[in-house]
Amino acid sequence: MSYLSQPLDARVLQQAINWAESVPVWLCTVLHTWGSSPRSPGSLLVATQDGRQEGSLSGGCVEEHFIKQIADGRWQQASQVVRYGDGELAPEVTLPCGGILEILIEYLPAGEATIAYLQQQLNAVQGYQAIRKQLQLPNACEHIVEEDFAGTTAAITYQTPNIDIRMAAAPRLLVAGYSPVAHYCMEFGHALGFEVVLLEPRASVVANIEQLPAGVRLLETFPAKYLEQQGCHANTAIVSLTHDPRLDDLTMMEAINTPAFYIGAMGSSRNSAKRRERLERIGELTEAQLSRIHAPIGLAIGSKTPAEIGLAIMADIVRIKNLGHMNAKPVVQGTLNQLAPLTEEDGASCAI
User: Fold this and answer.
1) Which of 41, 37, 47 lies closest to 94, judged by CA?
2) Which residues, 6 or more positions from 142, have their beta carbon under 8 angstroms from its beta carbon?
């Protein structure tokens, strides 16, 4: 993955590592927000004393003041918390709609210790291993442990002077094949904070895509091949939305070998039952593997249009991401091994 195609937090940490080889860096983490704020808790920014920066805290106004303060010699403690937007620190700095930001600032001297510290966090946001980092103001962080954590990029607890930050990869949406429903899923997914990747091997389909939704990365490769070679992290949702059995079936057969938290394929109850039979007979999938596949996919909200179906799919993905399989009340029509009884209507419409 190229530098520019990485999620923003990964780019921030990678740049911090590069700079920390020769100069001190200031790593900022948004701890809490009140009111309207352009950036959510867990968002990162890194800066150097000569004015270089990567990442964002507010969209411009806070960054400008913060960089000037670094140049003037402030923020020399190993860790400190500052608040922007309430008029106390910088009366001249206001956030949109009266918002307030609370920010952790860590001063990190150049050298191998800082690079190792930043690398642990980079590994977390890239999906290698979630971590929990704990520090006590105004001291440097001395405690990072591996953690079984997924579902959101960061979870933060702050009770002066103790700060606890759990870091994991940003949720990723892998879409196998382009379709009108896939288009809306990708659009909604980007708006919901997912890293969105479209895997589309069909040149004729790619040629007819007028414009992809913002933030979508297109890879012209077979989804099954990509999953076999690249895999994915546990904070990934994999959906196949083409109605092409050759694409959908192979994707499902590889997806169940990954730790993805959500796997789903589009189709009516009748078509989903046929897919189950094929996956069981040809793919030799077990009951446990089949139970991971959501098909029919999405919440049962009576979706008819591509936009409605996309909404239902993303709502179900968010439900599982935030609540988990064990805690979420089942409101879908059924996973692939728990299908509702088939009716004539199931075969007459696609539904989801």
Assistant:
1) 37
2) 135
Judge contact between 306 and 351, C-beta under 8 A: no
d(CA 321, CA 92): 40
User: What angle (nearest 5°) sits at the alpha carbon of residue 217, between those of residues 206 and 176?
Assistant: 60
What pLDDT score does 339 carry? 38
Backbone torsion region of residue 226, taken as left when φ is above 0, otherwise alpha when ψ lies between -120 and 50, otherwise beta: alpha
Q: 295, 335 in Cβ contact below 8 A?
A: yes
CB-based contact 135:142 (threshold 8 Å)? yes
Average pLDDT on 221-231 reads 95
CA-based nearest residue to 250, from 224, 220, 284, 279? 224
| CA proximity to 332, closest of 320, 322, 342 | 320
The rounded Cα 243 to chain-centroid distance in angstroms is 26
pTM of the model: 0.66
Query: How many CB atoms neighbour CB 208 within 10 A?
Result: 9
For 343, other C-beta atoms within 10 Å of its C-beta total 10
**98 is written with which tokens?**
């009266």
The neighbouring-strand residues paired with 155 are: 166
Residue spans of beta strands (DSSP E) within 126-252:
131-136, 143-146, 154-159, 162-167, 172-176, 195-199, 216-219, 236-240
What pLDDT sits at residue 333?
Answer: 44
CA distances for 317 relative to 11, 188, 235, 308, angstroms: 26, 11, 11, 14
Tell me if residue 77 falls in helix, strand or coil: coil
